[in-house]
Amino acid sequence: MTVLVCSDLDRTLIYSAAAFALDGPDETMPRLLCVEFYQGAPLSYVTETAAQTLEALARAATFVPTTTRTPEQYRRVHLLEKPPAYAICANGGHLLVDGVDDPAWSAEVRSQLDSACAPLTEVQNHLVNLGGEFVLKRRTASDLFAYTVVDRTALPAGWVEDLSGWCAERGWRTSLQGRKVYCLPASLTKSTAAAEVARRTGASRTLAAGDSLLDIDLLESADAAVRPAHGELHGAGWTSPATVVTASCGIIAGEEIAGRLLDLVTSE
Ligand SMILES: [Mg+2]
Fold this sequence. Notes:
binds magnesium ion, 14 strands
Protein backbone atom coordinates (compact mmCIF):
# COMPACT_ATOMS: atom_id res chain seq x y z
CA MET A 1 0.00 0.00 0.00
CA THR A 2 1.44 3.35 -1.03
CA VAL A 3 1.24 6.07 1.57
CA LEU A 4 1.76 9.64 0.43
CA VAL A 5 3.33 12.05 2.91
CA CYS A 6 2.95 15.67 1.80
CA SER A 7 4.75 18.07 4.09
CA ASP A 8 5.35 21.77 4.02
CA LEU A 9 9.01 22.72 4.49
CA ASP A 10 9.61 26.14 6.09
CA ARG A 11 8.75 26.27 9.78
CA THR A 12 7.31 22.76 9.50
CA LEU A 13 10.35 20.61 8.71
CA ILE A 14 13.15 23.14 8.10
CA TYR A 15 14.04 26.20 10.17
CA SER A 16 16.08 29.36 9.81
CA ALA A 17 17.92 30.61 12.90
CA ALA A 18 15.12 33.13 13.48
CA ALA A 19 12.63 30.27 13.85
CA PHE A 20 14.66 27.84 16.01
CA ALA A 21 12.93 28.82 19.28
CA LEU A 22 15.66 26.96 21.16
CA ASP A 23 16.06 27.79 24.81
CA GLY A 24 17.29 25.91 27.82
CA PRO A 25 20.70 24.83 29.05
CA ASP A 26 23.48 24.69 26.46
CA GLU A 27 24.07 20.98 27.06
CA THR A 28 20.51 20.17 25.93
CA MET A 29 20.91 21.87 22.53
CA PRO A 30 20.46 19.39 19.69
CA ARG A 31 23.05 19.00 16.94
CA LEU A 32 21.81 20.59 13.74
CA LEU A 33 22.29 19.84 10.08
CA CYS A 34 22.32 22.65 7.53
CA VAL A 35 20.05 21.77 4.59
CA GLU A 36 20.10 25.08 2.71
CA PHE A 37 22.86 27.44 1.64
CA TYR A 38 21.91 30.82 0.24
CA GLN A 39 24.28 33.49 -1.01
CA GLY A 40 27.21 31.68 0.51
CA ALA A 41 25.78 31.33 4.01
CA PRO A 42 23.88 28.59 5.86
CA LEU A 43 20.17 29.39 6.02
CA SER A 44 17.93 26.44 6.96
CA TYR A 45 18.41 23.56 9.34
CA VAL A 46 16.93 20.37 10.74
CA THR A 47 18.06 18.50 13.82
CA GLU A 48 20.25 15.48 13.13
CA THR A 49 17.50 13.27 14.53
CA ALA A 50 14.96 14.84 12.18
CA ALA A 51 17.28 14.23 9.23
CA GLN A 52 17.59 10.53 10.11
CA THR A 53 13.84 10.22 10.65
CA LEU A 54 13.11 11.84 7.29
CA GLU A 55 15.42 9.34 5.57
CA ALA A 56 13.42 6.51 7.18
CA LEU A 57 10.17 8.23 6.20
CA ALA A 58 11.28 8.52 2.57
CA ARG A 59 12.08 4.78 2.54
CA ALA A 60 8.72 3.80 4.09
CA ALA A 61 6.43 6.12 2.11
CA THR A 62 6.29 8.45 -0.87
CA PHE A 63 7.56 11.65 0.71
CA VAL A 64 6.57 14.80 -1.16
CA PRO A 65 7.96 18.19 -0.10
CA THR A 66 4.96 20.50 -0.51
CA THR A 67 5.98 24.12 -0.40
CA THR A 68 5.09 27.65 -1.42
CA ARG A 69 8.72 28.11 -2.48
CA THR A 70 9.35 28.50 -6.19
CA PRO A 71 11.18 25.60 -7.87
CA GLU A 72 14.39 27.68 -7.76
CA GLN A 73 14.02 28.31 -4.02
CA TYR A 74 13.11 24.66 -3.43
CA ARG A 75 16.19 23.36 -5.27
CA ARG A 76 18.42 25.03 -2.68
CA VAL A 77 17.05 22.67 -0.02
CA HIS A 78 18.90 19.36 0.36
CA LEU A 79 16.76 17.53 2.83
CA LEU A 80 17.43 13.93 1.81
CA GLU A 81 20.44 12.04 0.53
CA LYS A 82 18.41 11.07 -2.54
CA PRO A 83 16.06 13.80 -3.79
CA PRO A 84 12.35 12.87 -3.64
CA ALA A 85 10.69 11.69 -6.86
CA TYR A 86 7.96 14.32 -6.49
CA ALA A 87 7.96 17.82 -5.10
CA ILE A 88 5.13 20.35 -5.07
CA CYS A 89 6.32 23.96 -5.41
CA ALA A 90 4.74 27.42 -5.74
CA ASN A 91 1.84 26.29 -3.54
CA GLY A 92 0.79 23.75 -6.16
CA GLY A 93 1.70 25.78 -9.23
CA HIS A 94 4.63 23.54 -10.09
CA LEU A 95 5.05 19.79 -9.86
CA LEU A 96 8.64 18.55 -10.03
CA VAL A 97 9.10 14.97 -11.17
CA ASP A 98 12.62 13.69 -10.47
CA GLY A 99 13.61 17.32 -10.06
CA VAL A 100 12.21 18.39 -13.45
CA ASP A 101 9.27 20.73 -13.78
CA ASP A 102 6.23 19.06 -15.35
CA PRO A 103 5.10 21.58 -18.01
CA ALA A 104 1.71 19.91 -18.49
CA TRP A 105 0.86 20.41 -14.81
CA SER A 106 2.00 24.06 -14.84
CA ALA A 107 -0.15 24.73 -17.91
CA GLU A 108 -3.14 22.96 -16.34
CA VAL A 109 -2.90 25.02 -13.13
CA ARG A 110 -2.58 28.31 -15.03
CA SER A 111 -5.54 27.54 -17.27
CA GLN A 112 -7.68 26.83 -14.21
CA LEU A 113 -6.68 30.08 -12.50
CA ASP A 114 -7.31 32.53 -15.31
CA SER A 115 -11.06 32.59 -15.01
CA ALA A 116 -11.22 32.23 -11.25
CA CYS A 117 -9.37 35.28 -9.96
CA ALA A 118 -8.13 38.79 -10.66
CA PRO A 119 -4.83 38.95 -12.59
CA LEU A 120 -1.54 39.07 -10.71
CA THR A 121 -0.78 42.53 -12.13
CA GLU A 122 -3.86 43.95 -10.38
CA VAL A 123 -2.61 42.62 -7.05
CA GLN A 124 0.93 43.88 -7.73
CA ASN A 125 -0.39 47.35 -8.54
CA HIS A 126 -2.49 47.37 -5.38
CA LEU A 127 0.55 46.44 -3.27
CA VAL A 128 2.60 49.24 -4.86
CA ASN A 129 -0.22 51.74 -4.32
CA LEU A 130 -0.56 50.71 -0.67
CA GLY A 131 3.06 51.76 -0.13
CA GLY A 132 4.33 51.56 3.43
CA GLU A 133 7.83 52.17 4.78
CA PHE A 134 7.61 48.83 6.60
CA VAL A 135 7.55 47.06 3.20
CA LEU A 136 11.16 46.03 2.56
CA LYS A 137 10.68 44.10 -0.71
CA ARG A 138 7.94 43.30 -3.21
CA ARG A 139 8.30 40.10 -5.21
CA THR A 140 6.34 37.84 -7.52
CA ALA A 141 6.80 34.08 -7.71
CA SER A 142 6.45 31.86 -10.78
CA ASP A 143 4.20 34.53 -12.37
CA LEU A 144 1.50 33.14 -10.10
CA PHE A 145 1.46 35.09 -6.85
CA ALA A 146 3.01 38.00 -4.96
CA TYR A 147 4.72 38.38 -1.62
CA THR A 148 6.17 41.25 0.30
CA VAL A 149 8.88 41.18 2.93
CA VAL A 150 7.90 43.44 5.82
CA ASP A 151 9.39 44.77 9.03
CA ARG A 152 7.08 43.00 11.47
CA THR A 153 7.84 45.43 14.28
CA ALA A 154 6.60 48.34 12.11
CA LEU A 155 3.66 46.55 10.46
CA PRO A 156 0.54 48.64 11.25
CA ALA A 157 -2.30 46.88 13.04
CA GLY A 158 -5.00 45.88 10.58
CA TRP A 159 -2.81 46.18 7.48
CA VAL A 160 -2.85 42.46 6.70
CA GLU A 161 -6.55 42.22 7.56
CA ASP A 162 -7.39 45.08 5.16
CA LEU A 163 -5.29 43.47 2.45
CA SER A 164 -7.02 40.13 3.08
CA GLY A 165 -10.42 41.76 2.63
CA TRP A 166 -9.34 43.41 -0.62
CA CYS A 167 -7.93 40.10 -1.86
CA ALA A 168 -11.01 38.09 -0.88
CA GLU A 169 -13.18 40.28 -3.12
CA ARG A 170 -10.94 39.32 -6.06
CA GLY A 171 -10.57 35.59 -5.53
CA TRP A 172 -7.25 35.93 -3.70
CA ARG A 173 -6.11 35.23 -0.15
CA THR A 174 -3.26 36.18 2.16
CA SER A 175 -0.91 34.50 4.57
CA LEU A 176 1.51 36.07 7.06
CA GLN A 177 4.58 33.93 7.69
CA GLY A 178 7.50 35.38 9.56
CA ARG A 179 8.51 38.51 7.62
CA LYS A 180 6.55 37.57 4.50
CA VAL A 181 3.02 38.53 3.52
CA TYR A 182 1.80 36.29 0.71
CA CYS A 183 -1.03 37.08 -1.72
CA LEU A 184 -2.17 34.02 -3.66
CA PRO A 185 -5.08 33.07 -5.89
CA ALA A 186 -7.55 31.26 -3.65
CA SER A 187 -7.70 28.36 -6.07
CA LEU A 188 -3.91 27.83 -6.13
CA THR A 189 -3.71 25.08 -3.53
CA LYS A 190 -1.28 22.49 -2.31
CA SER A 191 -4.08 19.94 -1.96
CA THR A 192 -4.92 20.01 -5.69
CA ALA A 193 -1.32 19.14 -6.56
CA ALA A 194 -1.18 16.54 -3.76
CA ALA A 195 -4.28 14.86 -5.25
CA GLU A 196 -2.50 14.73 -8.60
CA VAL A 197 0.53 13.04 -7.04
CA ALA A 198 -1.80 10.60 -5.24
CA ARG A 199 -3.41 9.79 -8.59
CA ARG A 200 -0.06 9.25 -10.31
CA THR A 201 1.39 7.08 -7.54
CA GLY A 202 -1.81 5.19 -6.79
CA ALA A 203 -1.55 6.19 -3.15
CA SER A 204 -4.32 4.89 -0.96
CA ARG A 205 -3.61 7.02 2.06
CA THR A 206 -2.29 10.57 2.47
CA LEU A 207 -0.59 12.18 5.46
CA ALA A 208 0.22 15.87 5.70
CA ALA A 209 2.01 18.47 7.81
CA GLY A 210 2.06 22.25 7.70
CA ASP A 211 2.08 25.39 9.82
CA SER A 212 0.38 28.19 7.84
CA LEU A 213 -2.99 29.22 6.47
CA LEU A 214 -1.75 28.02 3.08
CA ASP A 215 -1.54 24.49 4.49
CA ILE A 216 -5.15 24.20 5.72
CA ASP A 217 -6.54 22.57 2.57
CA LEU A 218 -3.62 20.11 2.57
CA LEU A 219 -4.16 19.19 6.23
CA GLU A 220 -7.92 18.89 5.77
CA SER A 221 -7.68 16.69 2.69
CA ALA A 222 -5.26 14.24 4.33
CA ASP A 223 -6.31 11.13 6.24
CA ALA A 224 -4.14 12.26 9.13
CA ALA A 225 -2.09 15.41 9.69
CA VAL A 226 0.34 17.11 12.05
CA ARG A 227 0.96 20.76 12.70
CA PRO A 228 3.52 22.45 14.96
CA ALA A 229 2.66 24.34 18.14
CA HIS A 230 3.90 27.55 16.54
CA GLY A 231 3.26 29.60 13.43
CA GLU A 232 0.24 31.07 11.74
CA LEU A 233 -2.17 28.17 12.38
CA HIS A 234 -1.13 27.92 16.01
CA GLY A 235 -1.60 31.67 16.43
CA ALA A 236 -5.09 31.33 14.99
CA GLY A 237 -5.85 28.33 17.21
CA TRP A 238 -6.69 26.33 14.09
CA THR A 239 -7.32 22.62 14.40
CA SER A 240 -9.24 19.82 12.72
CA PRO A 241 -10.37 16.36 13.82
CA ALA A 242 -7.58 14.61 11.85
CA THR A 243 -4.80 17.04 12.83
CA VAL A 244 -2.47 16.44 15.78
CA VAL A 245 -0.61 19.39 17.32
CA THR A 246 2.99 18.86 18.43
CA ALA A 247 3.97 19.13 22.08
CA SER A 248 7.11 21.09 21.17
CA CYS A 249 7.69 24.23 19.14
CA GLY A 250 10.47 25.61 16.95
CA ILE A 251 12.99 23.30 15.31
CA ILE A 252 12.25 20.58 17.89
CA ALA A 253 8.66 20.53 16.59
CA GLY A 254 10.13 19.81 13.16
CA GLU A 255 11.82 16.74 14.61
CA GLU A 256 8.58 15.74 16.34
CA ILE A 257 6.59 16.13 13.10
CA ALA A 258 9.01 13.85 11.23
CA GLY A 259 8.68 11.28 14.02
CA ARG A 260 4.91 11.45 14.15
CA LEU A 261 4.63 11.08 10.36
CA LEU A 262 6.93 8.03 10.47
CA ASP A 263 4.85 6.54 13.31
CA LEU A 264 1.68 7.05 11.26
CA VAL A 265 3.25 5.32 8.26
CA THR A 266 4.71 2.37 10.16
CA SER A 267 1.60 1.81 12.29
CA GLU A 268 -0.36 0.90 9.14
MG1 LIG B 1 5.51 26.76 6.43
